[in-house]
Request: fold
Amino acid sequence: MKCKFSFLILVWYVNYIFIFFENLYYLQNIFGVGNMRNYLIIIIFIFSSFQLQAQSSKDSLRKHVVKLSEQAFPRNAENVEYLNRAADYIRTNFLRYTQRVFFQKYEIERVLFKNVVASVGPDTGYRIIVGANYDVNGNTPGADANASGVAALIELTRLLSKIKNLPFRIDLVAFTLCDYDSLSAEKWGNFMHARSLMENNIKVLGVLTLDGIGFFTDVPHTQHYPRNYFKWLYGHRGNFISLYLEKQAGLFPNQIRRYCKQYVKGLKVVSFKPLFSWKKFSEKTQAAYVKMGYPTVSISNTGPYRNKYYHYDVDTYETLDYQRMSAVVNMIYETLTRYKQ
Reply:
């Protein structure tokens, strides 16, 4: 079946090329050779513009979520072997698209833990951090929380690695121990990474964190908020992606918000910028960077305010919407490739 499908695609491409050159021949007779040069320039420009509009693969996203969430034991600090298997899987997939991949290792009570970091773009200058944690809360599968965010990191690495002239470096970071409630925040993977940026005087434009981006629903009254009146502003269906900006947000978060809303397709974007922090939105991966003074935007589906399976053992890969998850990845990709200082 797969071979037959590939053959049909090949036939379609050959037919497309034949029609293209046939039309080119007629246009040459109509406009002349001189004007044809301008015509070809326009064609090249159109095709080159399509390269920016890369599409994420919902099948790849699903594959990564399944692999991470369907291990024999949960990927947490009590099962370090399976936590490391997840880290190795992420590293292996990062290496498919860039050779600039490394483990950021640290020890807690003689046990080694590690973040996984991949880089694309120039070696020097300013950089943007895109991060998501790969561990789980308790003994849960953690499909939405947060295999979905890690799957997005891998897919973004694939898409961004194709861009040869990125104006700044992008570090894609999979954090460990961000969902381990009994551990102090200073020992979480995101804190270790944020601190290393500050200690090494790394020039950071800003940070995007991905915290649950796979669960969506059109069922009425499934979306909840920290303030009840928000449902009159943003609706009661869990069918949007949210951007959470801290109150001190500056140029970077506001530009990210503008680009996300401009380039998203097939999905509504809702941005929150409250006067006081909402704990369930900012207590995880975003908090460490805020503490270090870096501008941040948290991208999520609002987690437990929508997903009743969040941090429970029914947070499985079957509950996620990979079509809309793919739209989120495309939105982030379009935003990163168009961001300007």
Q: What stands out?
A: Residues 1-14, 41-52 have pLDDT under 50 and may be disordered. The first strand starts at residue 101 and ends at 108. The longest helix spans residues 2-52.
